[in-house]
Design goal:
Length: 303
């Protein structure tokens, strides 16, 4: 049994399969062809934080494959009334085929997975967001081909998205230029990467963007860190992706953002709503790649 708790839980070969499969699944979806590979399978989705994309893509995806979903939140389940995560895992995993969790500490999802009889998928933790990076890299490939050997500029917080980009760079062979304000750096041990070879740190975000194939950013304040919002607004003021940063990147560079975005904070409207932005493809591709992922975890390689 395989869980998907971090990007490094799968190999480069698994990703090559998943990207091919996502492409097939997407083509079928676009031509209204049925893709019922998960008939009678049930996915439990546990949300301890808010979501739009993750919920809609997993829920719609599961129904579109012939399965069904159960949606739980902290507030409307015993999780919010201190039932141990281990007990919840034992009970929920006896009734469903697959579990997706969005929560706070990575250790929480790890404890759940340890006591689960079925595969567990990370739908975002404080440390990682592997399903998003899966969609982002699939989107890059659709627009520009292989990401191997390319340069991704990360401008902003050293957060769950940054950590996951770093893990992906080691597995898929690309480089990440990271620029964060002081005090918000990526931490190699939290990112769970083997070495510092696949990334380079820049104090100046303009320098991080120079020559990049892809420029990407995220909110200044992630979910769970709301108390730091005002301090962060001051610290991050120079880490706003603008037209000048995009001009420093390659002329055909793409812009990505996992969304939700705050125009005028981490990105200027002219960039996110401009011609280099692929944010809507990125969001849609959550649906297609997660269908491929759920199938892979439950049925292995098909076709
Ligand atoms: N990008 C992303 O995970 O969006 P949601 O928070 O809306 O799920
Ligand atoms: N880093 C953001 C991503 C939201 C999809 C957060 O964790 O809130």
């Amino acid at each position: 049994m395989k869980h998907y708790l971090q990007f490094c839980d799968l190999s480069a070969d698994d990703y090559a399969y998943l990207f091919e499969r996502s492409s097939l699944i997407k083509k079928k979806f676009k031509s209204y062809e049925k893709h019922h590979t998960l008939v009678d399978r049930t996915l439990a989705m546990i949300f301890e934080k808010a979501s739009t994309r993750t919920r809609v893509s997993f829920e719609a995806g599961m129904y579109q494959m012939g399965g069904s979903v159960v949606h739980l939140t902290t507030g409307d389940s015993q999780l919010g009334r201190s039932e141990p995560i281990e007990d919840s895992a034992k009970v929920i995993s006896r009734m469903v085929d697959l579990v997706m969790i969005r929560t706070y500490e990575q250790t929480k999802i790890e404890r759940f997975a340890e006591h689960s009889r079925v595969p567990v998928i990370n739908g975002l933790t404080n440390e990682f967001h592997p399903c998003q990076i899966l969609a982002d890299i699939f989107t890059y490939i659709e627009h520009r081909g292989s990401i191997a050997g390319k340069t991704v500029a990360w401008v902003g917080d050293g957060n769950n998205m940054a950590n996951t980009w770093l893990q992906a760079s080691e597995i898929l062979g690309f480089k990440v230029h990271v620029s964060t304000p002081g005090g918000y750096e990526v931490d190699q041990s939290i990112a769970g990467i083997r070495s510092a070879e696949s990334y380079q740190v820049f104090d100046d975000p303009m320098q991080a963007c120079a020559g990049a194939d892809l420029v990407t950013t995220d909110v200044w304040t992630s979910m769970g860190f709301e108390a730091e919002n005002e301090t962060r607004k001051v610290a991050f003021v120079d880490w706003c992706v603008d037209a000048e940063m995009m001009r420093a990147a390659k002329p055909d560079a793409l812009f990505m953002h996992c969304l939700p975005a705050h125009r005028g904070e981490e990105v200027q409207a002219e960039v996110i709503d401009g011609p280099q932005s692929v944010v809507w493809d990125e969001a849609e591709n959550r649906l297609h790649v997660q269908k491929a992922l759920m199938e892979f975890l439950l049925l292995g390689r098909l076709g």
